[in-house]
Amino acid sequence: MLYNFLRTILFCFDAEKSHNIALKALKILNSVGLLKLIFKSPVNAPVTVMGLQFQNRVGLAAGLDKNADYIDALANTGFGFIEVGTVTPKAQPGNEKPRLFRLPESNAIINRMGFNNNGVEHLINAVKNAKYKGTIGINIGKNFSTPVENAVDDYLISYEAVYNIADYVTVNISSPNTPGLRSLQHGDALRQLLSSLKLKQKELHLTTQRYVPIAVKIAPDLNAEEIQELAETFLNTEIDAVIATNTTFSREGVEGLPHENEQGGLSGQPVMASSTDIVKQFCKIFEDRIPVIAVGGIMSAEDAVEKIKAGAKLVQIYSGYIYKGPDLVHQCAKALVNIGS
What we know:
Number of domains: 1
CATH architecture: Alpha-Beta Barrel
CATH superfamily: Aldolase class I
Strand content: 15-25%
Strand order of the largest sheet: 3-4-7-8-9-10-12-13
Helix content: 25-40%
Distance between the termini: 33 Å
Radius of gyration: 18 Å
Mean pLDDT: 94
Order of helices and strands: HHHEEEHEEEHEHEHEHEEHEHEHH
CATH class: Alpha Beta
Number of helices: 12
Structural class: alpha/beta
Low-confidence stretches: none
């Protein structure tokens, strides 16, 4: 009830402005110890994926805390793990505003943020200053100014930079808001990128005696042939996990609504079915050789259960957190305690 009241107020403001207000408010409440009184403690149901232990199966998806400035506050609203970013080697402003749009009739969001962030050095310092001791993933991308043919350089810079502070690193090659980025999901470009990252991983593992898994975040706009090709590449390069999925170009489920024609990626409830189908297809091919983390459209505990039953090992939430609040995180984590996968 409290969150519904607060959401009504926040939804009176521009979407990006209210997003920033809410995060700053959470940080203040956490700093004075009130968050633990307002929200339930994270469900303690440990699960091991990628060789890492997660407090529970429900994580925060990348995109909400781009600069890792709010880790402690967000962790205290129930998440079993936190993924921050997307971060790029150099700071960049992202696309012009407005660039974030709510479609509340469908519990959906359209964004064209464009990897706005303060750069990898800022994020590193923020993670180091966080008190949170749980599992942290760091989502990395390429700078807008870096040509796609040189994208591997940006990913290598960020992967090496965050290696010592990340529990796992997610390679974002599926955002629809950076021109040409999704071309990295195919053919030789993908093989070169992943092979280079795995080589760097091996080198850093030998040097530090610490293994930092690499996950790859993929788009939902894939046909069966593309899924098969991607899966084979992931298996051949021994990627540690796949996160399915990012936002979609599709406007199915939001037809006729205000902001339907805004450019950018659609997330939220309309993506649930297509994203879950992608999870099923990858899990069928992988046969447990590579774990899948499911994200896309989770608006209820039943949605989270459906993702796990489709074969996913973990789930992540973003849009559902905006529309339903922290109670959704707790409900999903509780529902997944005794669900096998």
